[in-house]
Design goal:
single chain; about 150 residues; mainly alpha; 8 helices; about 75% helix
Length: about 150
């Protein structure tokens, strides 16, 4: 076994670094969710139909998986806008306190949103009551076939 430098084992990872990494991670997660959702819709898949077939505990996991990155990243963006407006708040103790506030407020808002807003019925949040399905597969296929005509 190789020896690790002693500083690695005694170093405490600061909460400000954790919140910074988490902000980047939630941004990547949101990008992935948007790309996958858009791709599945473009291919004629219906993610909400799959969601409606999930067990309640699975829906809860999906809800948290969608809500937390959105809420955390939004709150992190608000924090950065406040820092841009009030640069005097950028000192170690204030940044440390804002990191704790960011994590705790994101967790609390996520839990409350899942329990009281989503209420295990995500279909009604995104699908209007007068939902009319439009089949665009023929239009998409026609446009793909006509791409060479556009290029000439």
């Amino acid at each position: 076994m190789t020896k690790i430098s002693p500083h690695v084992s005694i170093y405490k990872f600061p909460i400000t670094a954790i919140t910074s990494i988490l902000n980047r991670g939630t941004g990547v997660a949101l990008s992935g969710m948007f790309v996958l959702s858009g791709t599945s819709l473009a291919l004629g898949k219906k993610p909400l139909d799959h969601y409606s077939k999930l067990q309640p505990w699975q829906k809860t996991l999906v809800n948290y998986g969608v809500l937390f990155p959105n809420i955390y990243h939004a709150f992190g963006g608000i924090r950065h806008m406040i820092w841009d407006k009030f640069p005097k708040l950028l000192h170690n103790s204030a940044v440390h306190r804002s990191s704790i506030l960011l994590i705790s407020s994101s967790l609390i808002t996520t839990i409350l949103s899942e329990k009281f807003v989503i209420n295990k019925n995500l279909e009604n949040v995104f699908r209007p009551r007068n939902y009319k399905e439009i089949d665009v597969s023929g239009i998409i296929e026609e446009e793909i076939i006509n791409i060479p005509d556009i290029c000439n």
